[in-house]
Amino acid sequence: MALRTPGRVPLLLLGLLTTGLAHLPLPASTPRGFWALPENLTVVQGATAELRCGVSAPGSAVQWAKDGLLLGPDPRIPSFPRYRLEGDPDRGEFHLHIEACDLSDDAEYECQVGRSETGPELVSPRVILTILVPPKVLQLTPEAGSTVTWVAGQEYVVSCVSGDAKPAPDITFIQTLLLPQGGQTISDISANVNVGSQEKLFTTEATARVTPQSSDNGKLLVCEGSSPALDTPIRVSVTMNVLFPPGPPVIEWPGLDEGHVRAGQSLELLCVSRGGNPPATLQWLKNGQPMSTAWGTEHAEAVARSMLVMIVRPEDHGARLSCEAHNSVSTGIQERGVTLQVTFPPSAITILGSASQSENKNVTLSCITKSSRPRVLLRWWLGWRQLLPTEDMVMDGLHGGHISMSNLTFLVRREDNGLTLTCEAFSEAFTKETFKKSLILNVKYPAQKLWIEGPPEGQRLRAGTRVRLVCLAIGGNPDPSLTWFKDSRAVTEPRPPQEPRRVQLGSLEKSGSTFSRELVLITGPSDNQAKFTCKAGQLSASTQLVVQSSLFRLILEVPPTNVTILANASALRPGDALNLTCVSVSSNPPVNLSWDKEGERLESVAIPPRSAPFKGSAAARSVLLRMSSRDHGHRVTCRAHSTELRETMSAFYRLNVLYPPEFLGEQVLVVTAVEQGEALLPVSVSANPAPEAFNWTFRGYRLSPAGGPRHRILSGGALQLWNVTRADDGLYQLHCQNSEGTAEALVRLDVHYAPTIRVLQDPTEVNIGGSVDIVCTVDANPILPGMFNWERLGEEEEDHSLDDMEKMSKGSTGRLRIRHAKLDQAGAYQCIVDNGVAPPARGLVRLVVRFAPQVEHPTPLTKVAAAGDSTSSATLHCRARGVPNIVFTWTKNGVALDLQDPRYTEHTYHQGMVHSSLLTIANVSAAQDYALFTCTATNPLGSDRTNIQLVSISRPDPPTGLKVMSKTPYSVGLEWKPGFDGGLPQRFQIRYEALGTPGFLYMDVLPPQATTFTLTGLQPSTRYRVWLLASNALGDSGLMDKGSQISVTTPGLDQPSGEPDYQLPTEQPTRPSRLPLMPVLFAVGGLLLLSNISCVGGFLWQRRLRRLAEGISEKTEVSESTPNCPPYLYPGRSEEDRVRNEYEDSQWTGGQDTQSSMVSTTDVEPYYHSMKDFSPQLPPTLEEVSYPRGLTHLEEDMAFPGHLYDEVERLNAPSGAWGPLYDEVPMGLCDPCWPEETYEDTRGIYDQVAGDFDPMETDSLPFELRGHLV
Description:
- It is flat, with a radius of gyration of 71 Å.
- The chain has six helices and 93 strands.
- It is mainly β.
- Residues 1-22 form the signal peptide.
- Belongs to the immunoglobulin superfamily.
């Protein structure tokens, strides 16, 4: 009902409209009714629908109703933007036109005509507008577009669900190869229609049971949804991958005779299996054992092939070759096999028995073949002649074959020697092949003749002569072996290679039927009258060896054949007696014997001779020796000399003296090494036998002979150390031992190492004027006399000379002696020790010179100004130097200050030898606090004091020390020292006059706090008198002080300039002759301007007074919000905190004149902006011009020569009240740049200068500036 409520408004409008129409005249002849009635209509969602309504009721209101809801007579139907009435109302056409129909338009409609005077209301029959909603999507399970893998013959369930539709779509399943071609429709389908996501919408869920076959592999399973709302059905599909087993394998045999093969043949068999998804997996088996698992697949034809390649062997006879095919869905293995029938010849033929026999003897042989299939026959051949076998046999062999054997016996003769005896195997199965086994017949028979060729018999030969004997023989099989004998012993060459080769026995040589063997010998004593025989013999199987021999005899002249030395003892020790006997066994003729030891002839005794071998002469001689250890290894030589033969034979006896170890004179007793390096402790020892062990001991501990992490004992006993440390320094004991005794030695290892400072007293303190030694003690090796050196550390510009100090050293301690210590000797010193072993040692020590306090005395009386209004505060600074630390005490007018008073706060700071005390007085009262404060600095060595006067704010003191720094014809450079500023920011003004020219000229110093300035606009060769005025808000300093005035004469144009190099050039006038008129012109211009600016003066006067009062009150406020920033950027900062932070970073600077200790913006750093880009046009002003000085800066808009203030940008800031004390304070967070919000317009830089006021009008000043004079 809520949806129909708005429809009542059109009904009211319709009633009013029909009431009005009832008063209109209507033709009485017009009938009321429908000439066109609406009809039921069906459209697809999104299409356009039109319900027709023709009415014959002029003047009546016509409207449509949707499910009872009136749409109104307005043709635009505002409530339904897609609805409108179409047609000509004058003709009674009120057709309902609906654009882009959707489900909300699915309803009952009727056309209504309002009542009128001509008749009641009319209502058409209700018609139904049906909206068809096509399904947008089909959801297939499994997922559409995918490939499903199924096994042939198994049942699978597929579901397909449509999207929202009206009416519910029809779903069918089709199996096809291509879309949109037809295919086979699946009949086993169940479908359910369900309510959709919205009213009037439906979904259809269909389920199909599919049993795929092998023929369905690769086909599409299509879910097709059809609906009256669709022009063409919508389809989704999956691809069926149907798995099915392959077909049986087929073996393609080469040739017609399946299974029959020849051994050695390369057999290639192809196995083929068709069909199957996946294609078949093939493998070859031999007797059930796998042979090959390689196969190939042609997926397009679903064919699997496997090629088996094998070399057939005899053992393959009867083997079964099979090919198996299966895949992942096979229920069993499909197999095809073939059995091999192998033909093979005998692989070898063997002849048993010996083919070597003596002539006229029988030979018996057997011929046996390996297994063959089929069997073979055997036959014998001797040369070209066939022999008949004695016996033939056949036996079963391997692999289904047969073994053949044939026996042969026959008589051999000499002429058969060397003929070939062959056993041949043959068969009809191997017609193209012959199998044979052959051997050579060897018939044995003896040699026919034997003789020796050599020197004539009976010839005399000298020992050492080379003799050649040849033995010859004719005939014989086998070849005769010729053997030489000497006195019935066979002659052989000496086997030990160290013996001289006296006999050379040649090999057996053959030339035709003649055989020979040569014997070459160097004759010796044993060959004297010896008999040499050559024998040749042949073996017979049944007879004795027949030996023939030949004889040869030698007669020689023989020198001593052998010299032998005999000893009575083998083990010799020092002190033993040794008897040596030299024996010459045999010589021809006799020899003489003699003895010597290492070239020294020895006395010997002859011994009666004995009988000699080889029919020669013997000799003997003995010598007696006393042994010592030095004789070990010496040779004692016996020489046998033959005078007739002029030959000498020698023999020596090497003495082997056993003695305990003895250290030699070259034994090293001290070894030097460097720490972390290597050391070798050598051993020079002599002993026989050699030492059995070398034992090293260090500090009572034995070093392991097997070595350790840092030592090793070498084979000769030397001790090697590495990574040597100073702990290894000391004596090493060496113990040597052999079977004869022991010996010991001490070797010192001296380890050098870099120096290390052990004692260095830091700091070393001394009273000023006293004496002290800076002691540096080191641990080092070696200790050298000049290894100590001293350096003084500090800034580069400082004097680092040590000429006034005495350097001493003794042993490991070095001293730097300082006599009459001075303050400038305090600082850091470095002890450097270098003993030649890197690196040198360095030690830092500070020399502290103690002295009594020295308080800074900038002036006899330091002044601090503060307003005595009980609201301001003042800070008194007391700074002193001294060591040790200083204690500060304060007095006021000679009375100790009570620091318990909350108005007094003291902070003490210590930095090195510089100490500072800051006394802050809160709520300064003129009556109580304007007094003389005394600061006393005390330490154990003495005390010092200074006075600080706390006074009221006043006019500044005159500057002092005004002097000329440079001169040019047109300018003068000035410098001065500022005086006490009266407790307020001060500025400076220069007054000058040219002698002979009436009137004074004034020039303001920029920046205001500068202490140097270049006065420009002067004339050459002119004498000037210059005054310097200081002023603050309370007035100026006056002109009475002589230190604030000076006379100066500018140089002429032809005179050299006294201006320094850094002075900027000033602009010279173009016409110097007219320059004296410039002051007059400026005065006239000033008078003209006064009339224009006088009206503004009063206003500016009041504004300056207000700003001045505000600025001074802000100056006295205390704030801690901006530490480390200057007060001119943060005016609320506490004076005490600022000075404390500045002091903590300051460095000591002495000798500065300080006239004021009032902490203000000028004390730390002058507050002015860079004047580089600013050139104020302020001309000199004549004193005679009568106008207030406070209005001088209103002339800023006037045009004056720009060069007048060109020097301003090079001016230096004035030193503060404490001089350079705070010049080196590090920049804080607010220091790197000037904040824009604190920038002050330079054109008003003098707006608040109180010196411009009339001094008679003091009552107009704020109370803080009036002060209370005591």
